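Lab meeting, action items carried over

1. Structure of the four-component assembly. Owner: GW. Status: complete.
Input record:
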Amino acid sequence: MDRTNSGRLPGASKARGPYAVGDERRRRILDAAVDHFAQWGFHASSLARIAKSVGVTQGGLLHHFRGKEDLLVSVLERSEEQDAESFFATGFDSAADCFQRLLALVDLNTRRPGRTRMFNVLAGEASEPGHPAHAFFRRRYDTLATRLAETLQAAVESGELRPDTDCATVAREVIAVMDGTQLQWALAPESVDMTHRLRTYLDRLYGAVSAGATALPPTPGAA
Amino acid sequence: MDRTNSGRLPGASKARGPYAVGDERRRRILDAAVDHFAQWGFHASSLARIAKSVGVTQGGLLHHFRGKEDLLVSVLERSEEQDAESFFATGFDSAADCFQRLLALVDLNTRRPGRTRMFNVLAGEASEPGHPAHAFFRRRYDTLATRLAETLQAAVESGELRPDTDCATVAREVIAVMDGTQLQWALAPESVDMTHRLRTYLDRLYGAVSAGATALPPTPGAA
DNA sequence: GTCTATAGTTCGATAGAC
DNA sequence: GTCTATCGAACTATAGAC
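Predicted assembly:
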């Protein structure tokens, strides 16, 4: 019978409470898996190597995750929980506000290179229809583009953006610039200021689609 | 002694002439390798599987290529010969001409999905400094961005583009949009018109940086 | 919950026949 | 130029002790 806990809710593994020791181990396995998937991709990652880097055996790892695919899915699900949902959790005051939060997200990505590189690698691999993350990434881009387009559309209707703005196209373009810049950054982090590059792009974009102002206001929070 | 021919010039393997039969085999191995690297990445690709898909044994494959890394390098070198160099082979009349040829290149990429997906996957993997293609991709992006920036700079000096154009930044942004769009296309080729998307982007970009005209002239050749 | 042990494949690379 | 044979190592996954 199936004794793995991969699908359960956080902290639900024991009657003892939400912070049982096993959850800490599980979390550390997920963290290690991120780095391994980033370096090796899915297919060439090894459960034994991942387990070793955490300090457990392969058998110990397989108590927490049914198998390799289950580990991958768990990593992706946690990643989505961590920021895609939190990014859209509260609505946006304006398109400018949305762009500012995109910049903050990119800035965050420079501070977690493992996760960022993992997404670069998996997004490339997952174009194969049989890849375990194929459906995940298709859904992810679809959802991301749709929500971003909705946010822009709301800004059109509020009068912030020009009425002739093609929101769906702009949304997908913004995502493309983020991904493409992320690829260049991962290859040469020391010579690519990802946040600065995206800001330059969003500045000109905002100037082109905004009804009034010609540039974004200066960034308050991020970097 | 080293009897592999991986570094030789095309058609130089025999005294018989440039089209000896072995070269055809070699070419078919390279073609197969592209598809395997696209699906599995470098690490998880298997020489035995590649050989089998060509119809030779692993031993037969290893006559032509010293090993897996050598096969990868040969694939990348041939790819560069095929279009990065030919893309810049003849100079550009103008920035508009350069953009038109970029569109033709993207259009070509939709018609060779294997090669395009391989680049998506390897560009992601190669961010790891120890990856066999790491140096290749760093050099590639550097060269590409530099040459593109030079082309734009020439257009600034000819008066086609605005004098305040930041050519280096624009060049890297164009590359990012191409790569990012390519990722989205690979995941959902049936719903992403890569050429159209890039054209929309380049149109607005050209309008923003050109000194006179506000849009690219309609595409003559491509798509 | 973590361990050891092991089954059954497949890997890259080498050696040598023809 | 391609083959067979083979090496040592690594892989996922399972079974069962504690």
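2. GW to write a short summary for the group page. Key points so far: Confidence is low (pLDDT under 50) at residues 6-16 of chain B. Chain B touches chain A at residues 38-41, 43-44, 117, 120-128, 134, 137-138, 141, 166, 169, 172-173, 175-181, 183-184, 186-188, 197, 200-201, 204, 207-208 (CB under 8 Å).
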